[in-house]
Specification:
alpha/beta, 5-stranded mixed β-sheet, globular
């Protein structure tokens, strides 16, 4: 999350966070920043400020997230995404094999091996002094259980943890990215697109099984944010 002088910007990974917070900070200053942290990390003095956020079509979110992680793994040694690394068997699994695990974290982590692997990798990042914002989600890594994820999909879990469902104003990045920023911070805001990841050529959601899976599991996200769960 980013707190400017007048707004709290709640940010879920892979929803144009860099493109949103940098122009906002430039025009409206910076009070506090914790990127993808749990909403509970928001200091008390900012809790009554207007909260805004941006969301993304679930189909594109999963494909973008996986593509970003794989590309980052290939270019930056020892900088890995804990969720994707845990589920992909050190990045050897195909996206089509990883997606079902993303869709219900509780069910995925009922596999004790995966749960211990996840906690081990989380502790590794903390030990290596990497500023892992995932740590803000739990008081004690050892106490993480499958039930900690409340039967949510990965996207739904992050939206909930980052406080998106508590926002006062929600904009879709596909059609309201610039509209939302201009409405909140004024027409003179300078929109800058940053940190964009092109989808890997072998990562496709647009087959029948994958779309049906996302459509059914994330149905409430489609409905709440006005997306159409259709086939392409």
């Amino acid at each position: 999350m980013t707190v400017t002088n007048t707004r709290v910007i709640l940010h879920t990974p892979k929803t144009a966070g860099s493109s949103i917070r940098w122009p906002a900070m430039k025009i409206d200053g910076l009070q506090y920043s914790c990127q993808h942290c749990h909403i509970k990390m928001l200091p008390n003095q900012y809790k009554n400020m207007k909260k805004i956020t941006f969301v993304r079509n679930p189909y594109d979110w999963y494909a973008s997230r996986y593509s970003f992680t794989i590309k980052r793994k290939n270019h930056i040694k020892n900088l890995d995404d804990v969720f994707t690394e845990t589920f992909s068997n050190d990045f050897t699994k195909d996206f089509n094999d990883v997606l079902p695990l993303y869709m219900n974290l509780t069910k995925a982590f009922e596999n004790k091996f995966l749960l211990e692997k996840f906690k081990t990798k989380l502790k590794r990042e903390v030990t290596n002094n990497y500023q892992c914002w995932l740590v803000s989600y739990w008081d004690n890594i050892d106490n993480i259980t499958a039930e900690s994820f409340e039967n949510r999909s990965l996207y739904d879990w992050w939206l909930n943890i980052c406080g998106v469902y508590e926002a006062d104003a929600i904009y879709r990045i596909e059609d309201q990215h610039e509209y939302g920023l201009k409405k909140e911070f004024g027409e003179n805001i300078n929109i800058v697109h940053r940190n964009k990841t092109n989808r890997l050529s072998n990562v496709s959601l647009y087959n029948y099984d994958n779309i049906l899976l996302v459509k059914n599991i994330d149905a409430k996200i489609f409905k709440k944010f006005g997306y159409e769960p259709t086939f392409k």
